[in-house]
């Protein structure tokens, strides 16, 4: 009987590992192909398509990016700025709101939680949102157009943080702090937040990825005439995909505009540059990510 159980367990482990290996390869191989394509000669990519073993290698795409760093570099720095500011503000708003609704004794906390959940199910739509942000809040063609809409506070993140506060932080610790004379702000900053590193890292990583990869806010709220100075790297990449002459028309070296652009491989090179920071940061947040999702997704 024991041998049979051991054989079944071994078979399950082999099957599970096989599935995970295949899934990992399916996730990793596109990134490898992306990097290889960015180092492929443009003409070779046009004729033969993308390949893991290109016939001819080239640094032309990265050389062109270096020559156009006045445009691409500004977009890259703007992406970093928007991601840092947006993520910091989002964590502050999400954590404070979640801390409030996690207090079951607070009058009206159920109404606040209902309003939060309601926005996960229904919204006013793109037209109404665009009118409010553009004509009431007047954020169009400003840096706030990249920060406020969509990502500043997510109801899903609020639920994760709220559940973490309720299930992972003992009420007795908070009560002891209050008996020692700590106020609400002191309890939140000195006890709750230091104990909430896993969920804060999880929510922060998801929010940062959202800001880093976002191009729709710029598409909706930034115009080429009034807001091009706020273009992020993803928006620049999207513009390139729509019109490969975008960089040439906005370049400091306009004399080279007639020169043929390495259009195919340049898209790949900009994509590589765009995803590098996230790929480098994720390994440091992975341990918090798994723990935060597990504990934050549990409700007693």
UniProtKB/TrEMBL annotation:
Membrane-spanning parts: 12-39, 75-99, 111-131, 143-161, 182-212, 266-285
GO (cellular component) term, any one: plasma membrane
Stored Pfam families: BPD_transp_1
Subcellular location, record wording: Cell membrane
Key words, A-Z: Cell membrane, Membrane, Transmembrane, Transmembrane helix, Transport
Domain ABC transmembrane type-1: 76-274
Protein's UniProt name: Carbohydrate ABC transporter permease
Organism: Fusicatenibacter faecihominis
């Amino acid at each position: 009987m024991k041998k049979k159980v051991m054989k079944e367990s071994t078979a399950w482990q082999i099957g599970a590992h096989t599935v995970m290996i295949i899934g990992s390869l399916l996730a990793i191989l596109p990134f490898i192909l992306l990097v290889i394509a960015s180092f492929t000669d443009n003409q070779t990519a046009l004729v033969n398509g993308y390949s893991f073993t290109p016939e001819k290698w080239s640094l032309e795409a990265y050389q062109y990016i270096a020559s156009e760093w006045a445009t691409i570099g500004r977009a890259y720095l703007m992406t970093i700025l928007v991601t840092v500011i947006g993520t910091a503000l989002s964590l502050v708003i999400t954590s404070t709101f979640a801390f409030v609704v996690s207090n079951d004794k607070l009058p009206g906390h159920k109404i606040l939680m209902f309003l939060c959940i309601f926005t996960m199910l229904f919204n006013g739509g793109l037209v109404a949102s665009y009118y409010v942000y553009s004509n009431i809040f007047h954020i169009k063609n400003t840096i706030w157009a990249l920060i406020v809409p969509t990502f500043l506070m997510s109801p899903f993140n609020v639920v994760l943080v709220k559940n973490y506060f309720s299930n992972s932080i003992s009420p007795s610790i908070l009560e002891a702090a209050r008996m020692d004379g700590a106020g609400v702000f002191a309890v939140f900053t000195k006890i709750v937040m230091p104990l909430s590193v896993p969920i804060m890292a999880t929510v922060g990583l998801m929010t940062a990825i959202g800001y880093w990869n976002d191009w729709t806010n710029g598409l909706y709220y930034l115009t080429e005439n009034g807001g091009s100075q706020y273009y992020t790297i993803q928006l620049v990449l999207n513009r390139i995909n729509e019109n490969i002459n975008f960089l040439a028309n906005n370049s400091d070296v306009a004399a080279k505009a007639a020169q043929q652009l390495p259009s195919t491989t340049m898209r790949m090179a900009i994509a590589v540059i765009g995803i590098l920071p996230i790929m480098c940061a994720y390994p440091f947040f992975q341990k918090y990510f798994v723990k935060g999702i597990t504990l934050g997704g549990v409700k007693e």
